[in-house]
Amino acid sequence: MNVTYLDAIREAQAKALARDDRVFLYGQDIAAFGGAFKATKRLAEEFPGRVLDSPISEDAMVGLAIGAAIDGMRPIIEMQFADFSSIAFNQIVNQAGTHFYRTGVPVPFVIRLPSGGNKGSGPFHSQSLESLYAHFPGLVVLMPATVEDAYTMLLDAVELDDPVIFCEHKLLYYHLKADKLPAEGLPIGKARIARAGTHATVVTAGAMLHEALKAANQLAEEAWEIEVVDLRSAKPIDTDTILASVARTGRILCVAESFPWGGLNAEVIARVVGEGFHLLDAPPLRLNSRDTPIPYHPNLWAAHRPTAASITTALRKLLGF
Amino acid sequence: MGQLDGGRKLEFGSGVREGPEADFRGLSGEIGCTGRKPFFRVTRVSAAKTHRSPSARAGSKHQTSAPHELLLSTYKWMLLARTLEDKLASLYRSGKIVGGVYLGRGQEAFSAALAAHLDQAGGDVYAPLIRDMAGRLAFGEPLIDPMRTYLGSPLGPMRGRDGNIHRGRPREGMLAMISHLGAMVSVVNGVLLSRRLRGIGGQVGAACVGDGATSTGAFHEALNQAAVEKLPLVVAVANNQFAYSTPTSRQFACADLVDRALGYGVAGHRCDGTNLEDCLQTFGEAVRRARQGEGPQLVVGSLLRLSGHGEHDDAGYVPAAVRKSALAADCIDLAGGRLIERGWAAEVDLATWKSEAVNRVEEVLEQVASEPLPDPLGETWCALSVRHLCEGNLGA
After folding, report:
1. Nearest CA of chain A to the CA of B86: how many Å?
2. How far is CA B128 from CA A53, A61, B65, B238, in A?
3. pLDDT at B240 exceeding the cut of 70
4. Could you tell me if the ipTM is greater than 0.90?
C-alpha cells in the first residue's frame, strides 16, 4: 500500500464519519466534486447527506460550524485554500475562540486549511496562517508534516472538544508517501524529534520539516549532527521538548514558511531565551519567508521561502558562532 | 414568584399563570374577547402540534387561550424589560456598571413579539442582539441573568468574563452574541442544520439584527446560506433608523429593507414596530411558516430607538422631525393604551404590573449586589476546555 498525505486526510475524514454520527463535512465543492484537491473524494457517496457543498461564504461556513458544534455536532470545514479563511477570520477568532471562555460551552470543530506555497500559486493561494490563528486564545493550531500525522492528528482533532485549525500543507499532498496508515500517533500538543543530533537544533513544522531534514543530511556529510524538532502543533507549543533539545545542542534555528514579523519562530525563540538562556552557546536564529506577498514565478517563489539551501546556510552561520 | 436562576421563565404576577405560556398557536378565525371588537385575525396553524407548546410544558389548561392573553403576557415582558433597563441606566450613571449600557427602549414590542412565538423548552433557538432585553425575558432568560452580567457577578452565565448584552445560555437555546454585527445569523443556521442532520423537526431559530447589520457581509452570507439550505430561520430586522449615529440613508439604498427578501429567495414581512399587535401577528405568521418548512423568513419592523446607542450617547443626531414622527411613539404606552381601550386591562392593572416589575427588579438587584465579585486568583485563565492544552498563563 502506498498512502499519500492527501490520502491520509481523506481516510481520516472517512473514518471520522464512519465512527461518529456527529461528524459532517461542509465546504466548497466538496460533495460530488470531491474537493479542489480531492480530499473528500467519494465521501459524499459513502456518507449520504453528511458531506455538504457550501456557498462561497467562508464567514457563514465557520459560523454554521460553530452553531452545529454548540448543538453537539463535530463539523469539519474545508477551506478551499488557507488564504480564504481570512474571510472567516471574525468567526474563527471572535466567535469560536472566545466561546468556551465566555460561556463555558465548548465548540468542537475542525477547520482544514490547505496551506503553504506551491509553484505558480502566487499571493492568494500560498499563505501559511498558523501564526495568525495561534495568536488568538481559544484555538488549537496543528501542522502535520508527515502522512502518519496527517491521519492521526486529524482524527484526534475531530475528537478534541475545542476548535482546531488544521494546517495541512499542499506541497505534501501528492508527493509525501507512507507504506500504511498508523493505528495511533503522538498526542496533540507533543513535538517529535524527527532527527537526533548534538551540534544544533532546528525547530520547524509542516513542509519546512522536509527542507530542514535535507539540510541536516547535507551537513551530516561534513560531520555536523543536526537535531530536527517537528513541532506538529503551533499551539500549544511543546516548549519542554524544545528546551530539552537546546540543552543537548546549545544552538537553535527556527524555520517557518510564514511571514517573518512575529509569529511561531519568534514565539519559540522568545521562550527559549526566556526559559533557557543559560543553555545557549550562540544567538538563536530564525528563518522565515520574505516580508513580501508570495510571488508567482517559481524562480521568485524559490527565493521567497526557506529551502534546504537557505537552511544549510543559516545553520553554518549558527554553527560558526 | 418565579425562580431566579433555574433557567425557567419567571412568573410575573401573583398566582395566576399569565406569563408567556398563552399564545395564538392552534387558533383559527377571527378571535377577540367575548363581547368586544375582535382585534386580531389568526390563521389556523396546522404545524402547531409538531412541537410542544409552552402551555403544554407548563401544564397549563390554557392551550387555546384567548389572543388577548398573549398580548397581555407580552406587554408584561415589555414592561419588565423597560423597568430593568431603566434601573440599569441608573446604575450606569451612578458608576456602578462599567463598560456600557445598551437599551432596547422603544423596541420592546418588536423584540418581545418574536420571542413570544418561540418555544425554548421545545428546542427553538434564539440569537438576540443588543436591544432585545424584552425578547430575552420573553424567551425565558432568568431576570437575574442581565443583572448579574451587567454587574459582573461570577454567579451569572458569563461570570464576569463578558458583560452587558454579551450574554446567553447556549445550551438552553439562547446564543451569546458577539459584538460583530450579523455574525450570529450563521451560528443559528448551524444549530438548525444540526437539528436537521439529527432528524429533529418542527423547531425554528431566530436571529435579531438591526438596520446596520444588514450592511455586513456576514448578514448576506448567512441569509443566503439559510435560503440555500431552506432552514427554518426567522431573521428580525429592527429598523430603528440609526446605526449608532448613521441614518438609514447612509446605510442602504433600497426603498425598503424587506425588498431584499426577494433577492435572497426568502419570505419577507414588514410590520409597524411600535404596534405590539402588528408585531405579534407578523411574527406569529413568520414563525409559523418557518416551522412548517417554508424556509427563512425576513421580518422588518420600523421603529425608532428611544435612547442613544448606549447610555453614553445623547442621540443628538436624531432630527427633531424624526423625534416627533409616528416612529417615535412609545410602544409600551401604545400597547397599554390599547389594552385599556379594549377593556382588557384597567389603568390600575397597568400600575400594578409596573409596580410588580419594579419589585422584581429591586429583588434581583438586591441579590446580585450581595454576591461576590470575580476573583482573578480563582480564575482558571484557560480559553480551552481541554485544560492540558492551555497556554493561558503565558502572558502573566
Report:
1. 26
2. 28, 20, 27, 11
3. yes
4. yes
Q: pLDDT per residue over A231-279, tens digit each?
A: 999 999 999 999 999 999 999 999 999 999 999 999 999 999 999 999 9
Catalytic residue among A125, A169, A199, A210: A125
* Contact check, Cβ <8 Å, A68/B193: yes
**Catalytic residue at A125?**
yes
Pairwise CA distance, residues B191 & B210, whole Å: 21
Q: Do the chains contact at A60 and B186, CB–CB below 8 Å?
A: yes
The 10s digit of each residue's pLDDT in A33-46 is 999 999 999 999 99
- Helix axis angle for B331-341 and B108-116, nearest 10°, is 70
Question: How many of the other CB atoms lie within 10 Å of CB of A205?
Answer: 32
To which H or E segment does residue B246 belong? strand B246-247
Which chain A residues are within 8 Å of B126, Cβ to Cβ? none
The minimum CA-CA distance between B300 and chain A, rounded to whole Å, is 22
User: In chain A, what are the domain boundaries?
Assistant: 3-178, 192-320
Across the A:B interface, residue pairs with CB atoms under 8 Å apart total 148
A3-178 with A192-320: one CATH topology?
A: yes
Residue type at A280 in one-letter notation: L
With contacts defined as CB-CB under 8 Å, which chain A residues touch B393?
Answer: none
Domains and CATH numbers, chain B: 29-373 (3.40.50.970)
Looking at beta carbons, which residues of chain B come within 8 Å of A102? 158, 161-162, 166, 176
Cβ <8 Å between B194 and A67: yes
pLDDT in tens, B297-342: 999 999 999 999 999 999 999 999 999 999 999 999 999 999 999 9
pLDDT confidence tier of residue B59, bands split at 50, 70 and 90: very low
CATH architecture of the domain with range A192-320: 3-Layer(aba) Sandwich (3.40)
Residues B109, B111, B114, B119, CA torsion sign: negative
> How far is it, in rounded angstroms, from Cα B314 to Cα B83?
20
State residue B208 phi and psi, 5-degree precision.
-105, 135
Tell me the chain B residues in contact with residue A68 when contact means C-beta distances shorter than 8 Å.
190-191, 193-194, 197
Residues pairing with A78 in the sheet:
A27, A112
CATH number of A3-178: 3.40.50.970
